[in-house]
Amino acid sequence: MKAVILAAGYGTRLQRDVANDSSGRFTHLAGTAKPLLPVGRCALISHWVHALTAAGCVDCIYVVTNALYQAAFEGWAAEFSNVKILSDQTRSNEERLGAVACLQLAVKHFKIEDHIIVIGGDTLFREDFSLRKVKLRFSDLQAKCEESCLVLSYQCKEEETRKYGILEVDEDLRVVCMKEKPLPSETKSRRACPCFYLFSKKSLLPLDAFLEEKKEAPIEEKDAPGNFVSWLIPRRPVYIHEISGRFDVGNLPSYTECDLYFREKLQDVESYMV
Description:
This protein has helices spanning 12-20, 44-55, 70-77, 99-109, 131-144, 206-213, 219-223, 225-232, 252-264; strands spanning 2-6, 38-39, 42-43, 60-65, 83-87, 116-120, 123-125, 149-155, 165-169, 175-180, 191-192, 196-199, 238-242, 246-248. The longest helix is centred in the middle third of the chain and has 14 residues, at 131-144. The model has no long low-confidence stretch (mean pLDDT 95). It has 9 helices and 14 strands. The strands form 3 sheets. Strands 1, 4, 5, 6, 8, 9, 10, 11, 12 and 13 form a 10-stranded mixed sheet that branches. A two-stranded antiparallel ribbon has the order 2-3. Strands 7-14 form a two-stranded antiparallel sheet. It is of the alpha/beta class. The radius of gyration is 18 Å and the shape is globular.
């Protein structure tokens, strides 16, 4: 199994917040890619590398970034023997390829023909999350059907449905559909779906078909990886693994909340997410 961490975003909201902050406390974050932000004892993305390595889930971790942050990621990755960096060659938010195109870029560049864990580079999970448990659930699904994929789900508040992709599932916890940012009245489900997916190697083939279909579509339809998941649901069996919640570093308040938790409340650093 391989891991692909999507880290080609430009963090425009967070950088705007840092520039507008008058306290001076966050000037050191200016120009830092979100996955490289310090969270607790290390960079946000380092928590993933430590956990993936300790859990023995994958034999290689591929990080897709952009030309603007490529040197910074290569400097960070120098201490990890199992991490490889790939640039999408863009230099601005307006040029971005989108997360799904970045995933396809990694699959083709590294000639991946294996199951893939896809991880959003600005996301971390609460302490109940365990890579070993997720891998075990995926293995059970694979034993029944080799085309099966696995996504995560946690309960969000009613007013938060408009911020996330919301999953509707059947009694076997197979996903029936994913509604993108629905009104609370448009679905009974409160199952939010974060950017963490286990795609079987047989589900990677439709990547090309999805992007061909969306070739003329606005970048937003290719940028949110959940759009590919939505497209995949009627074509492959997709199931959920339930967790309690996540940290989503989108702006300065969400970053400071996450950093504070990891500095003061994280119970066991060594076993985190393993």
